[in-house]
Design goal:
There is one protein chain. This protein is 44% helix and 16% strand. It is an alpha/beta fold. The strands form 3 sheets. The chain has a 6-stranded parallel β-sheet with strand order 1-11-8-7-5-6. Helix 1 packs parallel to helix 11 and helix 6 crosses helix 11. Bound molecules: NADP nicotinamide-adenine-dinucleotide phosphate (NAP). NADP nicotinamide-adenine-dinucleotide phosphate (NAP) binds next to helix 8 and helix 11.
């Protein structure tokens, strides 16, 4: 059997069309569009390029996205001051702090100053807590992208064995919560699972396998359950180019659906950021009864 390939670019295009239409409708009703601000500390080439590509996507969707550039040496206190000003600005609906960020900045502390309703990446403590309780739609973008891929297969997750490899705060753990919401039975593995020699047992019974580790080709096709849905979140730059955490060529012979790297989870992730932007805008409109 050869798996159906979950084409992230195609899925992203569909989701963009839906977002663009919703933005257009809201603009027609209110005369306003979502306005987002991306805080960029320093001027590292890669970060600027990524921030600019986010802006280009926003433009295409009819969303306004401004860059707030702060100097490389900005203090933590000044960064927090900037965040507070944006929180208080009614014309700013969504905010993100671009990463990577210089080492002297405590990213977690700064992110916790973001107004939870404007927290575009859904990563501050308030939003993670609300996500646990099912009280926010500001979902972290990479887990949201993985979920969109899973939903696109049409599977009903209730009662399914879902195994996540990797338990980071921004990917593995939030994804566990999202899968629980859909009534999957969730196992989250970490480095200790591997060290205890138990990783293969967990992988072998996974009907949905999501790998978010950051180790090239860690998971071999022969370990995967026949017919599993495999979502590879990993991005690894190697001499042979970008590869995921899953050995795609062998895994696609066992899986029923699989995401490629590149072209799988990545292209949808940035669209999820824009979806959170729209969500933040809707929150603003309802708070103003518009
Ligand atoms: P991270 O913070 O480094 O977390 C990696 C996780 O993997 C940790 O929980 C770690 O466990 C676990 N781990 C490491 N080695 C393991 C092993 N041999 N067996 C089992 N678990 C192991 O990374 P991240 O930020 O979650 O990102 C993970 C990958 O996703 C990276 O390749 C990153 O580039 C990629 N990513 C992709 C997107 C996208 O849009 N496609 C977005 C974000 C990240 P411990 O905590 O116990 O050490």
């Amino acid at each position: 059997m050869s798996a159906n390939i979950l084409d992230g670019r195609k899925l992203a295009a569909q989701l963009k069309d839906e977002l663009r239409e919703e933005v257009r409708q809201l603009q027609k009703q209110t005369g306003q569009v979502p306005r987002l601000v991306n805080i960029l500390v320093g001027d590292k080439h890669d970060s600027c390029a990524y921030a600019n590509s986010q802006k280009k996507l926003a433009d295409k969707l009819g969303i306004s996205c401004d860059l707030l550039r702060l100097p490389e040496k900005v203090s933590q206190a000044d960064l927090i001051e900037s965040i507070k000003k944006l929180n208080d600005d009614d014309e700013v609906h969504g905010i993100m702090i671009h990463r990577p960020i210089p080492n002297h900045i405590d990213y977690g502390e700064a992110a916790n100053y973001l107004d939870a309703n404007k927290d575009l990446e859904g990563i501050n403590a308030t939003n993670i807590g609300k996500m646990l309780l099912g009280e926010t739609e500001m979902i972290p973008c990479t887990p949201a992208s993985a979920m969109e891929h899973i939903k696109s297969t049409g599977i009903n997750l209730a009662g399914k064995e879902a195994v996540i490899i990797g338990s980071s705060d921004i990917v593995g753990k939030p994804l566990g919560l999202l899968l629980l919401r859909e009534m999957a039975t969730v196992t989250v593995c970490n480095i200790a699972t591997s060290k205890a020699g138990k990783l293969l047992d967990h992988i072998a019974r996974a009907e949905i396998l999501i790998v978010a580790v950051g180790k090239p080709l860690l998971v071999k096709g022969e370990w995967i359950k026949e017919g599993a849905i495999v979502i590879d979140v990993g991005i690894n730059h190697t001499e042979k180019g970008m590869v995921g955490d899953v050995e795609f060529e062998t895994a696609k012979e066992k899986a029923s659906f699989i995401t490629p790297v590149p072209g799988g989870v990545g292209p949808v992730t940035v669209v999820m950021l824009m979806r959170n932007g729209l969500q933040a805008f809707k929150h603003y409109l309802s708070s103003k009864k518009l």
